[in-house]
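Posting for a labmate who doesn't have an account.
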Amino acid sequence: MSEASITSTAVRGVKLYRLPLYEDHRGKLTVGEFGTTLPFVPLRYFITYQVPGSDVRGEHAHRACAQFLTCVKGACTVLVDDGVNRAEFRLDDPRSGVLVPPMVWAAEFDHTEDSVLVVFASHHYDPQDYVRDYEEFVAMTAGTG
């Protein structure tokens, strides 16, 4: 048995999560409780899978929505960028997750053939919440890094 750990990163508001692991003769179990272990109670989730390894998903920021990403099968790399600092994290274990707060640019790439990425979102889908132009994003975040 292990405890959850949360690590801050150089990218504003981005945190890496290592969720608890429970293991016995029946197999392994990892768990996160929304509102306690995990940072918010989601209003939406989506799953990406069968993403060609050369394709990039995401490539946007949200004005208000936070997201928690975990790759429950296979692996992918998550890039996060606050307009000043940038980092990449390889999600290759269902115990690992990345919190992407509002106004952080994120992209997912380098998917393995079997990757299954689950994303929990703090808000319902709203196309007005998206910032899809990177230069606009940088201008909006100037002075906040």
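Reply:
Got it, the structure tokens are right above this. Residues 5-141 form a domain with the Jelly Rolls fold (CATH 2.60.120.10).
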